[in-house]
Input
Amino acid sequence: MSKAAKLSPGRLAALRILIAAREGGRYAREVSADLCAAMALDGRDAAFARRLALGVTGCSGCLDDALDAVLDDPRSLSADVRDALRIGAYELLYLGTAPQVAVSQGVELARACTHGAAGLANAVLRRVAEGADAFLAAEDVPSQHRVMVSRARRAGLPTWLVRRIVDSLGEERAQGMLACQLDSAPIAVQVNPLRSGALADVLAVDGARSLGLPGAFAVERVGELVRSGAFAHADAVASDYHAQLIAAAVTREGSCLEIGAGRGTKTFMMLAHAKRRNLDHEHVALDLYEGKCQANAQRIECSGLGEIFTAAGDATDLDACLAAYDEQLGRTALFDTVFVDAPCSGTGTMRRHGEIPWRLAPQECDRDLPELQLELLCEAARRVGAGGQLIYATCSVLHAENEGVVSAFLSSPEGAGFALRPLSVALADAGPAYADAAEEIAAHETPAGAFQSYPCDGGFDGHFCARFIRV
Output
């Protein structure tokens, strides 16, 4: 038996996922299912492969720091061998794998890339194993920076980003978020109210438990939902529970302009809650990309929840985006609800999207995104009718993108006619079925009334939502 044959299938699959994602410019999560299926992995090996690939992706910068510190010439590594060494280093630093196992398997991974890399891998990973505790404790950095760098390394995040998180959330909440950064995020779904009865058995197989919002379920897995075609047929959508709370709270009678609708997960959920509450709801879904608009329209048509008008374009110029809708209406449309689901850093969802932290830059979070978000919000304000609500939402935990944008908007000429109101109050007339959801929203509200959640042990993702009323 050759040495290469000793390599575990899950680790080999993880390496192939990382290589395929890098070479194809795709996300590791996107390629993992097809690759594991192509390798005919059993459930256990496939789950291990995904855990390794997603974990390495999320901690890639820290893993490179650990590897580069013990490499004589970091630039000499091929990209494939670096991916192999990252897997070994991830097991040593973050999974607690026995050093002899992590090193020997890392050697075989490197050998699978280039036969001559085995010796280098053995030496490098042994040094990483020997220095693991010191690396995580940041003993190699000046003492005045050691605590922050150590926190960042233990969470697998850039140090600058950890500083922003602490400054934004405060010490206690930041600690809770960082402590669960390497954990898997919980899964939640929202069920189409027209199909809920037919999904009962499917949900039971996936270990579903009802949450405090109509149609919302936490599930242990989604395998049976996928196999049943529930997602493909718009019987349900997967969405973080805190995002579900926002979608439910902003749903109201009348017309709605949804900006940044994407492929329509929140569109689906808003129409589902409008159907449950028997609301007369007219929906315009806008996104920058025509392809996403088409996907949204197709899902809603398949769902049977109603009809939507879609528009594609840059939402910093709504007159151009809504020209066809305005022409159809015979006037410049004003809406009862304008919902800005803003492009953001995604820092509240990093457990699900490991690529986020290492693709962000400080300037993007501190300046570029907040400037764009404020521009979108100010433009959206022009389309809110008398007494209407303007909603601003992100999946970020950073102050600059959230409270910072809200403050800048209220200080702007466009925000002068608006007042900030608690999001939980929006569900006051939704009936007893939504009482628990309203209480949960209120539990996450800031003193000013904005909703701000953050990832924590056993909890859902970080989302922000501010609700303004035109007065």
About this structure: The mean pLDDT is 95. The two ends are 77 Å apart (CA to CA). The longest strand covers residues 384-394.
